[in-house]
Amino acid sequence: MSEIHEIVKRQFNKQAQNFSNWAVTKNVEYQKAYFDFCKISPEDTLLDFACGTGEYPIFAAPKVKYVRGVDISKGMIEIAKKQADIENIHNIEFLCHQVEQTPYEDRSFSIVMCRSAFHHFQDYDGIFDEMIRCCKMDGRISIQDIIAYSDERIDSFY
């Protein structure tokens, strides 16, 4: 594992307990809008790259066939697993693993997503190639990332 991976892993392990309280992370309206945009359906199989504490995969799980979430942070994954258990969700699995080389089979997901994490990656092309590898030929890939807002008050909030 590279030095950058170790730094990111340590940082997000520290943030794990409070990550779910971040305004954007817990905003159900954002979650609904995101999955409306992705046009999820009950037949979909979803893979979330850098899933964090699992809010988005957990939100999507009742609406799709199954969900897999992968994240480099053990702390984040532990929280995601606990929350899925609390909500009694059984069609979901979380894996602590680097996203550059996931253990999933080629073309095994109808939706592959990455939300608010791409800016943490070093090898954008490699990550995107891995997302393509995991996505079915007729599937969808969604990458959403953060931006700096022009309004300083809004930018400081997020």
Structure in words:
With 158 residues, the protein is an alpha/beta fold. The protein has a single domain (3-157), classed as Rossmann fold. The chain has helices spanning 3-19, 28-38, 55-60, 74-86, 124-134, 152-157; strands at 45-49, 66-71, 92-96, 109-115, 135-144. Helix 1 runs parallel beside helix 4. The chain starts with a helix and ends with a helix.
Corresponding CATH superfamily: Vaccinia Virus protein VP39
Give the low-confidence spans: none
CATH topology: Rossmann fold
Nearest-angstrom radius of gyration? Answer: 15 Å
Say how many strands there are: 5
* SSE run: HHEHEHEEHEH
Give the overall form: globular
Please identify the top-level CATH class.
Alpha Beta
Q: Please state the second-level CATH architecture.
A: 3-Layer(aba) Sandwich
Mean pLDDT: 83
**Total helix count?**
6
**What quaternary form is this?**
single chain
The share of residues in extended strands comes to: 15-25%
Supply the key terms.
158 residues, Rossmann fold, 5-stranded parallel beta sheet, 41% helix
Layout of strands and helices, then pairs:
Elements: H1 3-19, H2 28-38, E1 45-49, H3 55-60, E2 66-71, H4 74-86, E3 92-96, E4 109-115, H5 124-134, E5 135-144, H6 152-157
Parallel strand pairs: 1-2, 1-4, 2-3, 4-5
In short:
The chain is an alpha/beta fold and 158 residues long. The protein is built from six helices and five strands, in the order ααβαβαββαβα. The mean pLDDT is 83.
